[in-house]
């Protein structure tokens, strides 16, 4: 049986996820519940000890990567690290995990006395990265680079017969539930992290699957098997 898998994350990541699903033999249904809208902000990071990215959206919303190519960059995971390298940054270090792993990486690699950290972020950030780093003595400046705008109505594809709905963020999960979570009791919710699974747990599903690590490959393996 070919699994029909809905992808709720924003573009252009949704298309990349779709390609990975097809390579695993699944039918990919692209149905974003979020739209990424860039925001105007101060892009000068010359006085920062390091730049922090917690998503590929943040990397794409940073227009001066080549001008800041020699600045140290810390990222939450490998996909964001890859995007930062492709954008032109030379020194990129990945926490290969979640916000807690990123905070641990910053504490291990950086010195609070050597300057502030600039977090290029969206309007919704999982966890309290800034609070954890400030508690360790760092000065952290969060710059709003983009907003994630939730859908006002469900994409029609999410009301059609499906087997799995993939959720990469708490925001998309909450949006799906707020819009009625149609047929959830017959579906598997594939969740990128424990926080996403917790949000999914606010409605009833046939099954909730949580990736063992917050990486898309782990999410796809956990939900599709193999």
Summarize, please.
The protein has 226 residues and is an alpha/beta fold. It is built from eight helices and eleven strands.
Write the layout of secondary structure elements.
Layout: E1 4-7, H1 13-23, E2 27-30, E3 34-38, E4 48-53, H2 56-60, E5 72-75, H3 78-87, E6 91-94, H4 99-109, E7 116-122, H5 129-135, E8 140-150, E9 164-167, H6 170-178, E10 188-191, H7 194-200, E11 207-210, H8 216-224
Parallel strand pairs: 1-2, 1-9, 4-5, 4-7, 5-6, 7-8, 9-10, 10-11
Antiparallel strand pairs: 3-8
Helix pairs in contact: 6-7
Assess the beta-strand content as a share of residues: 25-35%
Instruction: Tell me the number of strands.
Output: 11
Could you describe the largest sheet, including whether it forms a barrel? 6 strands, mixed
The CATH class assignment of the largest domain is Alpha Beta
Radius of gyration, in Å, reads 18 Å
The name of the CATH topology of the largest domain is: Rossmann fold
- Average residue-wise pLDDT: 94
pLDDT under 50 segments (min length 5)?
A: none
Account of the 3D structure:
- The protein has 226 residues and is of the alpha/beta class.
- The protein folds into two domains: 4-33 and 152-224, Rossmann fold; 37-148, 3-Layer(aba) Sandwich (Rossmann fold), CATH 3.40.50.
- The protein has helices at 13-23, 56-60, 78-87, 99-109, 129-135, 170-178, 194-200, 216-224; strands spanning 4-7, 27-30, 34-38, 48-53, 72-75, 91-94, 116-122, 140-150, 164-167, 188-191, 207-210.
- It has a six-stranded mixed sheet, with helices on both faces. A five-stranded parallel sheet has the order 2-1-9-10-11.
- β10 (188-191), α7 and β11 (207-210) form a beta-alpha-beta unit.
- The model has no long low-confidence stretch (mean pLDDT 94).
């Amino acid at each position: 049986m070919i699994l029909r898998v809905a992808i709720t994350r924003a573009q252009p990541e949704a298309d990349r996820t779709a390609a990975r699903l097809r390579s695993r033999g699944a039918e990919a249904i692209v149905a974003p519940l979020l739209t990424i809208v860039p925001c105007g902000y101060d892009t000068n990071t010359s006085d920062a000890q390091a730049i922090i990215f917690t998503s590929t959206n943040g990397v794409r919303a940073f227009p001066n990567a080549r001008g800041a190519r020699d600045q140290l960059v810390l990222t939450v995971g490998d996909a964001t690290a890859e995007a930062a390298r492709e954008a032109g940054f030379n020194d990129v270090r990945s926490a290969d995990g979640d916000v807690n792993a990123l905070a641990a990486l910053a504490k291990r690699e950086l010195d609070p006395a050597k300057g502030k950290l600039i977090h290029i972020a969206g309007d919704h950030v999982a966890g309290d990265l800034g609070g954890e780093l400030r508690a360790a003595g760092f000065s952290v400046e969060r710059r709003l680079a983009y907003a994630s705008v939730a859908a006002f109505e469900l994409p029609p594809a999410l009301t059609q017969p499906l087997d799995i709905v993939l959720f990469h963020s708490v925001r998309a999960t909450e949006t799906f539930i707020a819009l009625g979570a149609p047929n959830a009791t017959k579906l598997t919710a594939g969740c990128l992290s424990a926080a996403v699974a917790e949000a999914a747990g606010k409605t009833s599903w046939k099954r909730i699957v949580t990736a063992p690590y917050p990486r898309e490959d782990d999410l796809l393996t956990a939900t599709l098997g193999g």
